[in-house]
Write a structure and sequence with these properties.
- The chain is of the alpha+beta class.
- It has a domain of about 140 residues: CAP (Pathogenesis-related Protein p14a, 3-Layer(aba) Sandwich), CATH 3.40.33.
- About 20% of the residues lie in helices and about 30% in strands.
- An eight-stranded antiparallel sheet has the order 4-5-6-7-11-10-9-8, sandwiched between helices. A three-stranded antiparallel sheet has the order 1-2-3, with no helix packed on it.
- The longest helix is centred in the N-terminal third of the chain and has 9 residues.
Amino acid sequence: MLALVAVLTATGCGSQKPTAAPPATPAASTPASSSASSAASATTSASPANLIEFTVDGGGPYQLGATLASLQTAGSLDEVTPGGAACPENTTARGKDVWRDVRLSFRKDGKLYLIINKSASVPTPSGVWLGTTLADLKKIYAGVTGEELTRATGTAYLITTLSGGGILFDLDANKKVISMAAGDAASLKSTYVGSTQFC
């Protein structure tokens, strides 16, 4: 099964090696023939729920638009917290198992609208891991609409697909990825630049 996941994960990946040490998994060669636009989201024939990767649509069972109720019924959530000072009408949760460092935000209607990946074990299909540099992000996503964003002393890099989905890569002072947020690209941009909450 691990071999299958490794082969499927390699599909659609860029040719850049991660700058952060990936988890110990079997090595797989990375095809260089995929287009950059397909690298921004999962394009393999396998179910997204079976792949250990983070895309503009989410990761594993945590796909944008999934409902809080269905994920709770499946036993896929930990630390479910309704409300909060920042976004009182929303509910937050975290994933389980390999997804435990993935944070989830649900709107009042119960739909998942934001997924934040802080896991060193969950890369993008194109090979971006926590620790990947901004320079490498720009190479990996050369064929995708991307822009560098700033707020106060912070920096991020946003990629946007034709569907309007995006991944916001939050960067540290050394311009290395410290987290990835998937959601509506326009909302990710306005929230980041405006220094507001992702409500």
